[in-house]
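Comment on both lines for my students:
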Amino acid sequence: MSSEITPEIEEHRQPDHEIHPQFLTRWSPRAFSNQEVPNDVLLSLFEAARWAPSSGNSQPWRFIIARNAEDRAKFHSFINPSNLVWCDKAPVLVVVASQSKNAQGDTIRTHAFDAGTSWGYLALEASNQGLITHAMAGFNPDAARTALEVPEDYEIYAVIAIGYRGSKLDLPEKLQEREIPSNRRSVEESCFEGGFGKQL
């Protein structure tokens, strides 16, 4: 992946307003190559995530990384079979969590919002580095918490597959049909002015 608008992207994604191409070229394929990701390249993704904004600079996000066979097998134990069928080739798997309470025991109201922003930064940098990412909610959070020894004051949100793009022909036939960049609803459908539901 890169910021270059390929025919595949151009066919499925047309912005209504001018934006940087990186926002169009980042999408979530399922076809992964098992090519390993160099350490410096991988860490650059988390460097990007590090610089995401957060309320009071609390930086509540945490990333648990699996990049060897033993750790990936541990992750495979709590990923749903419907996702494992395609993500088992991904050389890197990551669990995203965020700290839900501060040192005083009070809930950090924006912790999920901030963790999502950090993941977004990670995803964009992955695309800049020629990698693909695919975040999935199809996993057992309780099993993940136990397997990874995640403290109770951390919420677990997603598992992210990271790697280089493979051939869609390696996917099950039903998933091959879905291996295209998805579109989005219009800005006007998501944005209101002066009150909820009031058209721009």
